[in-house]
Amino acid sequence: MKPTIYDVAREAGVSIATVSKVINNTGRISEKTRQKVLKVMKQLDYQPSILASALTGKHTYTIGLLIPDIANPFFAELSRRVEDRGQELGFSVVMCSTDNDPDKTVRYITLLKQKSVDGIILASSFENHQVLKGLLEENFPIALISQEIPSLAIDSVTVDDFLGGYQVTEYLLQLGHQKIAIVAEKAPSNQKRMDGYRKAIADANVEMKENYMAITQATVEGGYHCANQLFDLPEPPTAIFACNDLIAIGVIKAARERNLKIPNDLSVVGFDNTFMAEMVDPPLSSVQQPICEMSRQVVDLLVKKIQGEKSRKRVVLLPELVVRKSTMPPEEQQ
């Protein structure tokens, strides 16, 4: 039989109210008594009921995290950092991978609310704004990371995706490339990276070629498929900007199958600067997103909401292009 709060109180020689104060970290009790109660809880393997806490209107100290794809190294790292920050603040994190499925996302939000989480962080691209609007009207704490929704007043932490796209394209233009293609996924963040690409091309007075712009899934297979289409053009690109590192790996795979060497025959730049960027050969130039800072700030914003703070913030952090060995000037290419 599972131990109860009554068992803990009896073994510790204190009242049920004192045990409750220790569990919820409230009230004024001595450190000696607190440690005594905690020791008994450990001995009895007592686990406070999260549901019971929720029913009494107390915090459950759990946060929901929705990400689009746990297989994507960027979101895997982001999840770990969110969990680390949550633990530092005394919150457990329940993670759900949505596979970019809108229906799945709605089901997970419903499930997390049923589980009485204190708030939800959404890292998925979420187009059902009515659901989010409903959560806001309920004053349910939510925050966005790696995305923002301009039409809704929601706390968010993002990187400047437009600037990141501009930086990559400007760098390739400065190397001397004019045949620069871009492969992006259908996500608001990637659309902004594509806008930065277009702006840099326009600022350099280079011809804008629509057939150099491809949209795909954020997967190795998606990058592979789009790269092959680009290679079959009458004038194939000399450089490809992949809007995440998974897509970049797919581009490199397609290039190798055609005996194209990186960067001798083709320059490639990724985005996210995941661990894969340093593992591929040659090491991949990629845009660094400050994942640690983004994760820390989004958890802090959500916790403040949980604690009752009314103000809302949109935090935009700066990206950084990390140059490695996957690019070179076109005149030096074979």
UniProtKB/TrEMBL annotation:
Domain of life: Bacteria
Listed GO MF terms: DNA-binding transcription factor activity; transcription cis-regulatory region binding
Keywords assigned: DNA-binding, Transcription, Transcription regulation
UniProt domain HTH lacI-type: residue ranges: 3-57
InterPro entries linked: HTH_LacI, LacI/GalR-like_sensor, Lambda_DNA-bd_dom_sf, Peripla_BP_I
Protein name: LacI family transcriptional regulator
Organism annotation: Thermoflavimicrobium dichotomicum
